[in-house]
Specification:
Blueprint: H1 2-17, E1 24-27, E2 51-54, E3 65-69, E4 77-85, E5 92-94, E6 97-106, E7 114-122, E8 130-137, E9 147-150, E10 155-156, E11 160-162, E12 167-176, E13 183-187, E14 209-212
Parallel strand pairs: 2-4
Antiparallel strand pairs: 1-14, 3-13, 4-12, 5-11, 6-9, 6-10, 6-13, 6-14, 7-8, 7-12
């Protein structure tokens, strides 16, 4: 009997000690106030039309809604469309790769709009930024049809150490040219299906997402009756 118990204990220890290999997919709701305000990263050339939304680690079922950027730059510039701020995460090292998909459209082919993304860590109050991914621009241009694009294609992160209570910030925008035309991206998470990885011609109204290749851990919560 003792051998059986010892075997069960060893098995449980093995399971508990086994590393986590699962990915973490974040969703990009169309609404939902972020808990704090974080300064937009200075790498963007323009941020005047950007807003802030709470980053979702699971579906919160907001309607898929277009957010249009009307800013007309004087030259080709990186223009921020929306910033997402996560809830506090647990202490951990964040590394590996990141992948994302979001639909977008340009109203004129000469807008030369390409989706861009920047990811960073901040402390619980939004200070002490540490870059995980500098502005990275998709290689495939948006067209005049609202369609899925890599944001980004699988890209290596700069490894950073997160302290307990830090937050992940994801900023999404466009690299666009000097044209008097709009550029639009589609945010929300109430579809039954997520956008398809690497299918850059997909036009279905599916959920945009950003996925880390590791399990992003959040602090444990103790429930007291």
């Amino acid at each position: 009997m003792s051998k059986v118990i010892n075997s069960i204990i060893l098995f449980m220890v093995f399971i508990m000690a086994a590393p986590a290999f699962s990915q973490t997919r974040f969703y990009l709701p169309s609404s939902g106030a972020a808990e704090i305000t974080v300064a937009y990263d200075a790498s963007w050339d323009a941020t005047s039309e950007a807003d802030r939304v709470r980053l979702a680690s699971k579906h919160v079922y907001t309607a898929l809604t277009n957010k249009t950027n009307t800013y007309n730059p004087a030259a080709t510039q990186q223009v921020l469309n929306r910033q997402y701020i996560s809830d506090p995460i647990a202490a951990q090292t964040i590394s590996g790769n990141v992948t994302g998909q979001i639909r977008g459209v340009e109203t004129h082919g000469l807008v030369n709009g390409f989706s861009s993304i920047l990811i960073k860590l901040v402390d619980v109050n939004g200070a002490n930024p540490r870059i995980l991914l500098n502005i990275t621009t998709n290689a495939t241009e948006y067209t005049t049809t609202l369609a899925n694009k890599n944001t980004p294609s699988s890209t290596a992160l700069t490894s950073q150490t997160a302290n307990n209570g830090d937050r992940i910030v994801i900023e999404i925008g466009f690299m666009r040219d000097n044209r008097a035309a709009t550029a639009t991206q589609d945010f929300g998470d109430n579809a039954a299906t997520d956008l398809t990885l690497n299918l850059q011609t997909e036009t279905n109204t599916y959920n945009p997402w950003v996925e880390f290749s590791q399990d992003i851990r959040f602090p444990s919560v103790t429930v007291i009756d």
